Amino acid sequence: MLRSEELAVLEQEIVSCRRCPRLVAWREEVAREKRASFKDEVYWGRPVPGFGDPDAGIVLFGLAPAAHGANRTGRFFTGDRSGDFLFASLHRTGFANKPVSRSRGDGLRLSGLWISAAVRCAPPQNRPTPDERDACLPYAARELEALDAKVVVCLGAFAWDTALRMLGKRPKPKFTHGAECRAGSLVLLGCYHPSQQNTFTGVLTPEMVDAVLSRALELSGREKKDSGDLVS
Fold this sequence. Notes:
The protein contains eight helices and six strands; from the N terminus they run ααββααβαβαββαα. By secondary structure, the protein is an alpha/beta fold. Helix 1 runs antiparallel to helix 5 (about 130-145). It is globular. The relative contact order is 0.16.
């Protein structure tokens, strides 16, 4: 089976998943009630699959869909402030053809990068339980098996700890911004999560994210593309 076909099969499994009753109830409640500013939109309201370049050497690994971001749009970091910050950096560093991500049909393309997350359903208060995290782990593991990834950039401590758990890395290295560790054939990089709590306070700056993404590109052994060369 071709890599793209394997990822497509996995995507269908992910979007139909109903393993975690609490998450199913919450994501669907949010999709029904909506935020006032999005009252005329149809929310995705399902688990969110990974997306990007099937030939990616780098995986960007987040926490979970935002209730009114990816749970609304159906694509990670799409339609929220965290995504605005992140995609601006992905565009500057040559991974994305656009500096913004608004919807699944907006023409955004990624090169050399795949975006995934530890948990695929929006959790209440952005806090999945350990059981919910573990129920989702096989999806990320299968993505990594299908991809030819060399580097996993973990956005935040939750993603870092989940990746280490998934890869069986013991003892677990401590999460810090810019941390690096090898787990089998992969290199894990730590990056603060692009949440508003971090970006609005200056804990995470554009230069800090750019530096981590540039380091990931260096470790992946692939050449940097100019964002203007990516086809929309």
